[in-house]
Amino acid sequence: MKVLVTGFEPFGGEEINPSWEAVSGLPDEIGGAEIIKRQLPVTFNGVRKILPRLIVEERPDVVILTGQAGGRPNITVERVAINVMDSTMPDNDGFAPEDEPVFEGAPAAYFATLPIKAIVRALRGEKIPAGISNTAGTYVCNTTMFTALHTIAVAGMETKAGFIHVPFSHEQALEKPRPSMAVETIRKALEVAIRTSLRG
Questions:
Q1: Mutual orientation of helices 116-125 and 183-199 as an angle, nearest 10°?
Q2: Residue tagged active-site, from 21, 150, 165, 191
Q3: Which CATH number is 131's domain given?
Q4: Does 126 participate in catalysis according to the annotation?
Q5: Could you confirm whether 165 is annotated as catalytic?
Q6: What span, in angstroms and rounded, lies between the C-alpha atoms of 66 and 19?
Q7: Where do the H-state alpha helices sit in the chain?
Q8: Cα(95)–Cα(101) distance, rounded to whole angstroms?
Q9: β-pairing, 62-68 with 29-30?
């Protein structure tokens, strides 16, 4: 078994991204599965170029994509990705698309194929605040989730995939009154999500 887990580089003026801080510290093996850890750029075009190649080459059994959702107080497991890129904030390449499709001719949306409710139950069972989110937004996180699910569908793979948003780390919240979570807790949450996905 093989699990691909991704996090993002910093963006929006932040010096770190808690998604990558957590992913990079994961062990190389969880539940008997090989853990492949990759950092993605916070760019619409970069993600659409890099992620399909990564999925097709690695052919993982599970794909768990992670990203920062500053302002959210808990771990949020995304239910759906939509075929829209729309942002007033430029990505790290300075690109700010408006009402553009992630992929022309692709479906309007894809649902996560991870066991999202089982993941949330398992996280809460470990006393980690968690919930299901019904919107991944229209920024790079949504594009990443849509790209992964579209790639898997087009390739006819049976890979389970989805996206998990994480709060700011405590370090990021030192100078702003925003909800935050310890990176160690985020990392534990990802381990729980991986184990649950491998079982489900």
A1: 130
A2: 165
A3: 3.40.630.20
A4: no
A5: yes
A6: 6
A7: 18-24, 44-58, 116-125, 140-155, 183-199
A8: 14
A9: unpaired
By residue range, what is the domain housing residue 35?
A: 2-199
Type of residue numbered 77? V
User: pTM to 2 decimals?
Assistant: 0.97
The catalytically annotated residue of 141, 170, 171, 175 is 141
Name, in order, each residue with C-beta under 8 angstroms of 19's C-beta and a sequence gap of 6 or more: 7, 8, 66, 67, 68, 166, 186
Residue-wise pLDDT for 55-112, tens only, equals 999 999 999 999 999 999 999 999 999 999 999 999 999 999 999 999 999 999 999 9
Taking CA atoms, 192 is separated from 31, 119, 152, 189, in Å, by 10, 7, 23, 5
How many other CB atoms are found less than 10 A from the CB of residue 113?
A: 19
Would you say the C-alpha torsion 68, 97, 145, 42 has a positive or negative sign?
Answer: negative
Active-site residue identified among 21, 78, 150, 191? 78
How many structural domains compose the chain? 1
Beta bridge partners of 132: 77
Structure tokens at 144: 């990443």
pLDDT at 200 over 80: no
Tell me, what's the pLDDT at 152? 98
pLDDT in tens, 42-56: 999 999 999 999 999
DSSP string, 116-148: HHHHHHHHHHTT--EEEES---SSHHHHHHHHH
- Please identify which residue in the block is written with the tokens 């759906």: 80
